[in-house]
Amino acid sequence: MSDEQYAFPTRAIRAGQEFDPTTGAVVPPIYMTSTFVQDGIGGFRGGYEYARGGNPTRDSLQTLLASLEGGSHAYSFASGLAAEDTLLRAVLHPGDHIIMGNDVYGGTHRLVSRVFVPWGVSISTVDMSDLDAVRHAIRPDATHVLWVETPSNPLMKISDIAALAEIGHAAGALVVVDNTFASPYLQRPLELGADVVVHSTTKYLGGHSDVLGGALIVDNPELAEKIGFLQFGVGAVSSPMDAWLTVRGIKTLAVRLDRHSSNAQTIAEALVGHPKLDAVYYPGLPEHPGHELAARQMKAFGGMISVAVSGGAAKAKAFAEGTELFQLAESLGGVESLIGYPAEMTHASVKGTALEVPDNVVRLSVGIEDAADLTADVLGALDRL
Ligand SMILES: *Cc1c(COP(=O)(O)O)cnc(C)c1O
To answer: Which residues on adjacent β-strands are paired with residue 335?
Structure first.
């Protein structure tokens, strides 16, 4: 099928998913094999030799991801951080400088500051929604990567991908967007000028909290070759089972994200001005500072909300532990609603750094259950504080 011919929800179900030619199975089989028989030495069937280099199930996921993000090539990995590690190895050298958001995903900051900094890379963290701050942080001839995450985690800041792509490219830097929070259904960074899209497919793409995975998508054959070499040469590939589960999740991405977004909008509106809260961070609220930009850059506002609870850490923790439908757990993007306390959960690794999350912030990953049930659950837990 050709990519131009079909809309996103159709491609999410069909791209890379040809029926099995031998049996007609509508769902392509899971190729649980590590190696492939050769018809004489070097006689590869369909190009397959050994599964670290290529496996048809992983290929079906990669074809699907490339189609959804509008890239020429996609590579899938065993986790989001494995994808990030592969990308950074491919593009950074000792002496290079990287700029990241000052509320970037904690694990991304840990990867750079604990693995790449000792190797000779330097890092600056800035507010990516402040374009002048980004311009000032650029070090001519040294800045090689601009790492953008929008919406950001957990404060839901919105950064202007097209403007950052221009700033990055003018400095000769590669512009990378972690698109995990939005998913390609809501936001397509390559179309806005970014060079690389990163995903933790563990989140919305997988969508069911049952598989870890990561991906890189690019629209540049030269960069694709470097990444492809390291995917094979370092080997942090996704397993056939994980790739298949991710493909299965992606089929419903469009309908899930529509519901995640409408549920989150309902809950955010119910929380605005609540006497037990100091702030509600959701880009779908007109008073959110990034609302207009998000409305331009995204198809809808997504399923993630954060709140600042009045009364500090103790009240915030009691709220995070006080819901029933929203289960207390790390991660996000699944069909079931989750609640988390970033300062000691997802962002514990940045405690004591400039990236530390305020201790009264609670993050909600709004699932696709009934909106009224979810709203009542959140309001009930706030009432009990
Ligand atoms: C979870 C997450 C990652 C890391 O992905 P893993 O699959 O957990 O390795 C990276 N970026 C963002 C925004 C995330 O939410």
So the answer is: none
> Top-level CATH class of 8-250?
alpha beta
CA of 275 to the centre of ligand 1 (A): 33
Q: Which residues are catalytic?
A: 52, 105, 178, 203
pTM over 0.90: yes
Fold entry, domain 254-383:
Aspartate Aminotransferase, domain 1 (3.90.1150)
> How many whole angstroms separate alpha carbon 25 and alpha carbon 159?
44
Mean confidence (pLDDT) of the chain? 96
Q: How far is the CA of 181 from the centre of ligand 1 (A)?
A: 9
* Domain 8-250 and domain 254-383 have a common topology: no
Token pair 């050994």: residue: 50
Domain boundaries, the chain: 8-250, 254-383
Report the residue among 76, 200, 330 best suited for mutation to probe ligand 1: largest number of ligand atoms under 8 A from its CB.
200
Whether 202 lines ligand 1, by a CB cut-off of 6 Å, is yes
